[in-house]
Amino acid sequence: MKVIASLAAVVALAAAGSATTQDMRIAWGDLDLGSTSGSAAFDKRVDMASRRFCSAPQQPGTLIVRSRECREQVRRAAVAQLPQAAQADYAQARQSLSI
Fold first, then answer.
1. Which of 2, 27, 89, 98 has the smallest number of CB atoms closer than 10 Å to its CB?
2. What is the largest CA-CA distance in the chain?
3. Percentage above 90 pLDDT, the chain
4. Can you tell me the distance from the alpha carbon of 23 to that of 65, in angstroms, rounded to the nearest whole number?
5. Residue 85 φ/ψ, nearest 5 degrees
């Protein structure tokens, strides 16, 4: 199974004025990222992982205030960690969704 092995999501913590990293794993090898259903399933997995990551305090006494921005950063990092060919398939499938 292909997994984004070390998705280091860098999230700016507005409350702390600093950044932190955390590793998470998102499986994608069982998906056809070139299909609309496969790209949608990948989006759902990334969304679930980003919600867990972005809702958890990253340092004692801090909360992520801008969870939407955090989730978007996680999504961009997840796509960037895909192999080039998978990124191209994913982008093509996402483009066909918006047409």
1. 98
2. 44
3. 32
4. 20
5. -65, -40
Please list the residues that pair with 3 across neighbouring strands: 27
Query: What is the rounded CA–CA span in Å between residue 72 and residue 82?
Result: 16
Q: What are the φ/ψ torsions at residue 6 (nearest 5 degrees)?
A: -140, 80
pLDDT at 15: 30
pLDDT tens, residue by residue, 52-76 = 888 766 555 555 456 778 888 888 9
Burial class (CB in 10 A: 0-12, 13-18, 19+), 42: buried
Residue indicated by tokens 């047409």: 99
Tell me the average pLDDT of the chain: 75
